[in-house]
Structures are given as structure tokens and as C-alpha cells.
Amino acid sequence: MYKVVTKRFLNDAKTICLFEIEAPLAAKHAQAGQFVIFRLDEQGERVPVSVADWDREKGTVTVMVQAAGRTTKMLHTVEQGDYISDFVGPLGRATEMEGLKKVCVVGGGVGCAIAYPIAKEMHKRGIEVTFIGGFRSADIVILKDELKDACDKLIMCTDDGTYGEKGFTTVFLKQEIERNIAEGKPQFDRVIAIGPDIMMKFLADVTRPYGISTIISLDPIMVDGTGMCGGCRVIVGGETKFACVDGPDFDAHQVDFDSLLKRAAFYKEEQDRDAQHICKMTDGHRRGQALPQLQESRLPHRLPRRRPHPRVHRQGRRG
Amino acid sequence: MKGESVAIGRLERFVADWHMAEQAKLEKVEVAVPASNGHRVAVVGSGPAGLTCAGDLRKMGYDVTIFEALHKSGGVLVYGIPQFRLPKEIVAKEIDNLKAMGVKIVNNAIIGKSETVDELFADGFEAVFIGSGAGLPQFLHIPGENLLGVYTANELLTRVNLMKAYRDDYDTPIKHFHRVAVVGAGNVAMDAARVAKRLGAEHVYICYRRGRDELPARLEEVEHAEAEGIEFQLLNNPTRILAGEDGYVTGIELLRQELGEPDEKGRRSPVPVQGSEWVLDVDTVIIAIGTSPNPLIRNTTGGLTFTRKGGIEADEGGVTAREGVFAGGDAVTGAATVILAMGAGKAGAVSIDKYIKDKNA
Predict the structure, then answer these.
(1) Which residues have a Cβ under 8 Å from the Cβ of A15 and sit 6 or more positions away?
(2) Beta pairing class for B136-137 and B291-292
(3) Which residues of A touch B113 (CB under 8 A)?
């Protein structure tokens, strides 16, 4: 059982929410670029989410989660002081920062939540950081103030121009690269991009002609996060890699984006159906959190009264 | 049955089940809690090796803590072996017994990530037993292994056994597949095939490059699979996996084989029949050709030596190259059986007892 110490929405549209979770084991070694896996309750999925911050003394890890599927929507209904059933980490490798002098960190939407600790850590280590944060519109912008202190130069942009500059991150990345050339300044040693797969694909196309080393952080479908299920495999430079143990950071110029985009959509049909589906067995009242030391009768939702039926029966067994 | 051999396994199962059922009728079961001798031992992994080692050490009086990476304890017993072969209630009961005996289990603790073996020693554990298993799936390295609809047996079994994806009230998704090819023919392949069949697949094929006499699975598992309608495509070696424009699997190309001369182990090796490729129509491919030890401990623990296949080098007593570190089960041997892992757990417990006694003598 892991306590939610802090919960707060990060934007006006309430699409992205911050959770500070009491998890001393995960907090002990968490580093920028790594991820954790949480599970809401007994019925919940194991959901990987990037580490946004940590406090080794308090023993807490902070994650920023966008409501997308059923589990993340349910997580958003969990309140401060509630408990979730599992929280394990840190998983994956930390983002490499050794020897870097000048870096451009690009975040797209909720990707900014992952880009933020990386930029902050680099900034702290004295690396010159330019941060480009892109969002669809002003109402979903997150970390407006925090980002200012995590970089040397901050460019915020929205697709519709309702906050910051108007345009996509690709435009501003190219602009900054060109500016370095025009003004005779040192070029970025590295570009680190985190956001929707399609954004990262286009950012990789921007840096490729300049030969700038580009790293992206991937979050493919996975179950255990320790190299066991193999569900998170990505093709990098023609070789199969596991994002959970070999990544999540990979060389953007080597990643097979076609395979990545297809694999990410594998369970889309099931997820869409699940989002619509209200489980009759919990009367649709399941909120997701695990409650400590509560008698069953005091649970806020009634426990299953029906015998659980295997899914295949509902879908009709053919043949 | 007259003329048939005595079914020892089934008799044992009956006795154990009966004992458990009778015990459940009692109001309170007294569990003897051995007095602590004050020495702390850490066990990495709550699979068969770890549980056995922890139980034996606790009985000797050691203060034992098991660290388990997953949210549920039991290792391969809960994520790998399906309910119909090993009811999860039995595993849960055994784990409850260990806890009642005073064994501590810390879930969601990945040794090598959350904490390292060095830190366990720094925390005051006098010995560490590594029973982290062989969880890393192997691939065939044929074209098409990353197409949509290609699972490792581990992924399928974990989704179904651990995450209960087959149940409506659990969130983890699973595809509703119709025609499934399982590549490999070991016990795990039989489990995966039967799980796929029970999830509603109309046709489940076992694709294996050798013949029936060479099947590596236990005969009983093969018979059970056949009884459930699993179709065997023997002497067929997969050469590539095919997909449509959308990336979803449409078939698997197989190359017919003939049995040649026996190899040094006496197994007849398959010889490809040139030009005999054919395509089996499937929408799902499950790769069940084995697993190798997880590299998490290998990458974060100094002083250990490893085998060519990635296993930790240890003798029969589980003694490794590093003082105070013991290992057993699949983490040492590579994928093997539950029984062998339990044996290694027992041997490890004896070695740890001797090591701590000698050290404090």
C-alpha cells in the first residue's frame, strides 16, 4: 500500500495531475529518465509512468499522469491521503548526461513532465539547457513556473498560439539550431526529446541533417518492466531492444518509428472498449484506490456479487 | 488400475489437497514460529527456489526477508504456471504459511534497481540467496518477430496468470485470437497453447522442428495438450512471420524437416527439406523457445562470475564466487523445473547455515 501524499492538477483543463507517492524503496535510487510502475488495486493494470521528481529524505516519488485510458482516469479520482496498491521502481536506465555541455530538451504535452526532471538535473550540473515545451493549447500547459528555473532558455509554444509562441516544437528546434549556426555559437551536443511518438519522429527528422545526437524516451506497452514479458520491444538500428531494461532512452536516428507507432496502438480497440465499459461486478463504483485496514463492508463500493465470467464468454466463443 | 503404474504424483496431490481442506475447517491453525537466532538473511526472488530456501532457513531460526520484484509473491508459480496446472490458492496458502512462520516478504522490491546486493549487506544481512529465476525471453531471430500479434510465452502467461486478463473485472487487456501458432514444444509451450485454447482460439498449433519422440515437454503435458485439441505441426521449423499492410500477423512460414542422424545426446537432429516452405494461416504467434537469467543482478552485483548463458556460477550447494552470496534455481541453471529449483533452495539454505555458523564460530 502506497500513500498519496500530494495530489494536484497541473493545468486548467485538469488533464494532467501530479501525485507525490510515499515509496521509500523507489525514492532511494530514482534518477531523471527512469520510470516506475503503479497499480491501483487488485483489478488494476501495471502502468508504467516516468519519474518526475523524488525526495530521498521524505521517501517520496512524484509522477505526473495524463488521463488517457481507464486506469489513468481512475487514478485521477484518487485523493490525497488515499492509498494505491503498488508502486515499484526505479526501472530502466537513467538519462545519460556525462560530458554534455549544451543541450536542447524538447517536451511535448505530458512529455514535459518527463523532460522537466532531466532539464533540471542537467541545469544543476552546469549544462547549458534550452527547453522547448509544446502544447496543443493554453488550457493544458503544465509546469509554467517550474520550467523557468530548470533551464537557461525557455521557449513555450502552443499549436493555436493561446500560450507562448504559436507553432510546433519542430519549428522552434530548427530555429534554435539555425541560430547557433548564424551567431557562430557552439551547436547543441545533444537534443533530448520526449513527447508523442509522432512528435519525436519529426524532431528526429529535424536534427538528422545537422548530425546532432538525438535521444528520445519511449513508453511502449509493457507488463512487468523488468525484462520479462518482452512486450516493450522496439527496433533500434535493426536490433530488437527492450525499452524497460535497455531504455527507455534510445538514439532517435536509429529507432524504427513505423514499428513503434504500430505496436503502441496494438490494444487500442480493447482500451477504447474498456473506457466505455462499466464493470457490472463493481456496479461501476470502483474508484481505484486501495484502502488500508478497512473492513470489507466499509469499502465505498460493493464487492463483486457475481461469479466472475471469463472474458471470452462475453465475446462469444466461435467454433 | 491393474497393470498401470502407481500414480504417485496424483496420490500426493490428493493428500495435500485433503490436508488443506481439512485444515481450513479448523478455526485456528497453530503454526510453530521458530525462535530467532538473531542472524539476518536476505532472499532475492519469491519463486520456488527462494520460498524453499526462506522456509528452511526460518525453521533453522534465521530471520529471513524475501525481496520480490512483482506485486504478488510466488515467482513463476504465479506468473508462469497456469491455474489449471497449479491452483493459485495452493501457492497463496504456502506463502501464508511462510509468513505465519515469521518470514518477511517485501514486494515491489527489485534487487539490482530499488536496492543492490551491496546495500543488503550494508543493511545488516549476513548472507544473500539469489533465486531470481530465468525471466528473460529468448527469440528465434527470424524476420517478423516484432509484428503485431507476436507474443512471448512470458507475456501471454503473465497477462493471463498474474494480471488475470481473461476476467472481465480486471483491467489488463488481452487480444481475442482465433488461430494461434506456438513455437517451441517444452512444458511452457504446452501451457501457452492450452491457455490460448482456453481463451477461445479455434485452432492452436505447436510448431516444432523435430518429431514426436523428441518433444522436450513431459509426456503428460503433451497428452494433456492433445486431449484439449492442440494440433501438432511436427518437423516444421518457422522461417519467418508474415503480416498484412497494417502490421498484424497473417501467417507463419514453416520449412519442413526430416530427421537425420542422432547427435551426441542421442536426439535425432532435424534436416531441412529444401524448397518445402509453406504458410500456416494464423493471427497470433507465441514464442516459447525458452528463457535465460535476468541480467538485472548480473549488471549491478560485483564479485560474481557467470556462465556463458548468463547464469550465476554456483556449486551444488549454491556457493558463488562472492563470499556471503548464494544462488540457486533458474538463476544458476537457466530455465529448468520447479522441483530442481526447490532442491537448489534447500541446498542453499544448508550452505548459508554452515557459512554463518562458521563465520560466527
Answers:
(1) A66, A67, A140
(2) antiparallel
(3) 29, 89-91, 226
Which residue of chain B comes nearest to A278, CA vs CA?
B169
Contact A311 B246 (CB under 8 A): no
Neighboring chain A residues of B246 at a CB cutoff of 8 Å: 262
CB-facing half-sphere around the CA of B262: CA atoms within 13 A: 6
Q: Would you give the end-to-end CA distance of chain A in angstroms?
A: 43
How far apart, in whole angstroms, are the C-alpha atoms of residue B90 and residue A274?
31
Q: 3-state DSSP call for residue B327? A: strand
Cβ–Cβ below 8 Å for B172 and A46? yes
H-helix or E-strand spanning residue A90: strand A86-91
* Closest CA of chain B from A204, distance in Å: 22
- Per the CB < 8 A criterion, the answer to whether A186 and A101 are in contact is yes
Residue B262 pLDDT: 83
Residues of A numbered 161-180 whose beta carbons fall under 8 angstroms of chain B's beta carbons: which are they? none
Spatial separation of the C-alpha atoms in residues B252 and B272, rounded to whole Å: 16
Q: Dihedral of CA B155/B160/B134/B62: which sign?
A: positive
Phi/psi-derived region of residue B75, left when phi > 0, alpha when psi is between -120 and 50, beta in every other case:
left
Nearest CA in chain A to B150: A231
- Return the residue of A nearest to B199 by Cα: A312
**Chain A (64-103) residues lying within 8 Å, Cβ to Cβ, of chain B:** 70-71, 85-91
Cell of B353: 547455515
Does residue A170 contact residue A206 with C-beta atoms inside 8 Å? yes
- Secondary element (H or E) of residue A75: helix A70-75
Helices B48-59, B338-360: inter-axial angle, 10-degree rounding: 40
| Residue reference for cell 500426493 | B12
User: ipTM of this model?
Assistant: 0.87
Smallest CA–CA separation between A161 and chain B, in Å?
A: 35
Does residue A221 sit at the B interface (CB-CB below 8 Å)? Answer: no
What cell numbers appear for B143 in the block? 524476420
Size of interface A-B (CB pairs under 8 A): 148
Q: Residue A228 and residue B294: Cβ atoms within 8 Å?
A: yes
Dihedral class, residue B11 (left if φ above 0, else alpha if ψ from -120 to 50, else beta): alpha
Q: In which residue are the cell numbers 524497460 written?
A: A244
Mapped onto helix, strand or coil, the DSSP state of residue B259 is strand
The CA-based diameter of chain B, rounded to the nearest angstrom, is 70
Determine contact: A44 vs chain B, CB below 8 A. Answer: yes
**CB–CB contact A223 B158 (8 Å):** yes
Residue B260's H or E segment, with its range, is: strand B249-262
**Residues contacting A201, CB < 8 A, separation 6+:** A257, A261
Degrees (nearest 5) of the Cα angle A184, A217, A235? 110
pLDDT, tens only, B229-262? 999 999 999 999 999 988 899 999 999 999 888 8
Whole-angstrom distance, CA of residue A33 vs CA of residue B318? 36
Grid cell 501471454 in the structure block, residue: B156
Cα dihedral A205→A207→A208→A212 (10° resolution)? -160
Cα distances (Å, whole numbers) of residue A158 to A135, A137, A144, A285, B282: 5, 5, 13, 37, 45
Give every residue of chain B whose pLDDT is below 70, as ranges: 1-2, 27-29
pLDDT by residue (tens digit) across A79-108? 888 888 999 989 999 999 989 999 999 999
